[in-house]
Specification:
By secondary structure, the protein is an alpha/beta fold. 35% of the residues lie in helices and 18% in strands. The structure holds (5S)-5-amino-3-OXO-hexanoic acid (KMH) and zinc ion (ZN).
């Protein structure tokens, strides 16, 4: 008899920092819109929402008050795990990027290297990476390590060796950013082959690679991130009417492959995160 397949965690990256309303008019910006989109994603099967901040005019902001308002709007509607971005937008300085960690979200991202990002550069110097890791430890926030390129995985291993990150980690392979590692199944397989026992992984394929990467992760026992941050189309030429449609599509693919969806409660256990209801600070 075959062993039961590991349930699939779906992360919804609903807003990002670089995508605009011009690219996709359904992009959520106000707390109400963010809360509603997180609720829809949870209903379609997502157990984590990855969040960036936005000013009311849609420009990126990592302001603590923006994150607090988003967080409360989400918690009023769903118990989904809330993961803050510490990447922010290309060009933001470090303190701006990480100020909202003081709210003690359950999870936050940690990119372990610098990378070309389209025509810009997403800068993460090693001392800055250490500072983010130390802030995550200080506020007891679970890291999700963002890997855009192979060397970032080596740096993550180094942080674990140094004790800056403790225990098995959760890694998100972000593949297909122009200038970074491309979205190929062979790249996923190689990166995953390097992960120590007990580490978990997901894939976020950028642009037209999103759903193909999701399919491969489902087949290989990994987890999946989708959403407008990474891709604005449901299929070729058809804009998604929100990240929830992409979550629904991944849930359908998982069902076809015989993989059940992970429920939020079990994702908290797997990732060792504690539910946050009222952010401190
Ligand atoms: N906006 C990108 C430059 C993260 O959320 O931690 C960085 C990013 C990574 O999206
Ligand atoms: Zn992000």
């Amino acid at each position: 008899m075959n062993a039961p397949l590991t349930p699939l965690m779906i992360t919804a990256a609903i807003n990002g920092a670089e995508v605009t309303r011009h690219d996709n008019p359904t992009l959520p910006i106000t707390p109400e819109e963010v809360g509603e989109e997180a609720r829809r994603c949870a209903e379609e099967g997502a157990c984590i929402v990855h969040l960036h901040g936005r000013n009311p005019d849609g420009t990126p902001s990592q302001d603590v008050d923006v994150f607090r308002d988003y967080f409360e709007a989400i918690r009023d509607r769903t118990d989904i795990i809330v993961q803050f971005s510490t990447g922010g937008a290309v060009g933001m300085d470090l303190e701006e990027r990480i100020a909202a960690l003081a709210l003690r979200p359950e999870m936050a991202t940690l990119t372990t290297g610098s990378v070309n990002f389209g025509d810009g550069v997403f800068v993460n110097r090693v001392p800055e990476i250490r500072e983010i890791a130390s802030r995550l430890t200080q506020f007891e926030v679970r890291a999700e390590i963002e890997v855009f390129d192979l060397g970032m995985l080596d740096t993550a291993f180094r942080l674990v060796d140094e004790g800056a990150l403790r225990g098995p980690q959760h890694v998100n392979l972000v593949l297909g950013v122009p200038g970074a590692m491309s979205a190929r199944t062979s790249h996923v397989d190689y990166l995953v082959s390097l992960l120590p026992a007990g580490w978990t992984w997901s894939v976020a394929g950028i642009g037209r690679h999103e759903l193909a990467m999701a399919r491969h992760a489902i087949e290989q026992g990994g987890h999946v991130r989708v959403g407008l941050e990474d891709n604005i189309f449901l299929r070729r030429g058809e804009l998604a009417d929100g990240s929830h449609s992409l979550v629904r599509e991944v849930a359908r693919m998982a069902s076809e492959a015989g993989r059940p969806l992970m429920v939020v409660h079990d994702a908290r256990i797997l990732l060792r995160v504690q539910e946050t209801r009222f952010p401190a600070g």
